[in-house]
Design goal:
Helix 3 links the parallel strand 7 and strand 8. The longest helix has 15 residues. This protein folds into two domains: 64 residues, Hypothetical PUA domain-like, domain 1 (Ribosomal Protein L25, Chain P, Beta Barrel), CATH 2.40.240.20; 156 residues, Alpha/beta knot (3-Layer(aba) Sandwich), CATH 3.40.1280. The strands form two sheets. Strands 6, 7, 8, 9, 10, 11, 12 and 13 form an eight-stranded parallel β-sheet that branches. The two termini are 33 Å apart. The chain has 235 residues and is α/β, with parallel strands linked by helices.
């Protein structure tokens, strides 16, 4: 059954404009066809198309599927956008597929990218939701400086991934030890966090963690963190 992004109104769902084109021009769906419709709320709708036109596809809700594809716990990744934006888009897609709950792009001292297209990022995340059947769209916070972000951090477990020579624990081990705590992981840019940024993070309750024995690219580190969180309850 095909999946689309749309909006619920009473007992019907209306596909978003881009989805209308895909449903009518590519898939050539007709009235009576059953589809899944996502709206990011956590509930997915099984629906039957009632009418199709060039501008809209309207379907009647047959069944509500609450908590569809829900991932337990809370994981927030704050990550410095990479210079090559395709790598960041890859991170967004895979993080959503594996169950991240929130993402914040952060600007740091060594950030090479100075522009962030939130609309494009959200589109990628929505596509990943439908592809992986995640009913809840993760929160995409506005891009902001690391300094501003640290003042807002509220998760009970706060980690900063680092390669510097310092006492640090395994992120994987910490997730396993504290599987139900809300967690926030800071992932730095290609040039790493500056000494002042490490100090500021420590002042705001962040603990140094390592991501295994290998040095990882920014987007790989983000994916590693989400995968570790997703596997924490599987022994």
């Amino acid at each position: 059954m095909h999946s689309f992004w749309g909006n619920r109104t009473d007992k019907q769902v209306h596909l978003e404009p881009e989805e209308v084109v895909h449903a009518t021009k590519v898939l050539r769906l007709t009235p009576g066809a059953e589809i899944f419709v996502f709206d990011g709320s956590g509930t997915v709708y099984r629906a039957a198309i009632e009418r199709v036109s060039k501008k809209e596809v309207v379907a009647n809700v047959l069944e509500e599927l609450p908590d569809y594809g829900v991932v337990s716990g809370h994981l927030h990744i704050a990550i410095a956008p990479t210079k090559n934006i395709d790598r960041m888009h890859f991170f967004l897609e895979k993080a959503v597929e594996m169950g991240v709950h929130a993402i914040t792009p952060i600007w740091t001292f060594h950030s090479e990218r100075k522009h962030w297209n939130a609309e494009k990022a959200l589109k990628i995340m929505k596509g990943a939701c439908t592809q992986s059947h995640k009913g809840t769209l993760p929160v995409l916070h506005p891009a902001q400086t690391l300094e501003a972000f640290l003042l807002q951090a509220h998760e009970s477990r706060r980690y900063i991934a680092t390669c510097i020579d310092s006492p640090k624990e395994s992120l994987v081990a910490s997730f396993v030890t504290h599987p139900y705590d809300s967690s926030l992981v800071l992932i730095g840019p290609e040039g790493d966090f500056s000494p002042d940024e490490y100090a500021l993070a420590a002042q705001n309750g962040f603990h140094h963690v390592h991501l295994g024995p290998h040095r990882l690219r920014t987007e790989t580190a983000g994916i590693y963190a989400v995968a570790a969180f997703a596997l924490r309850l599987q022994g």
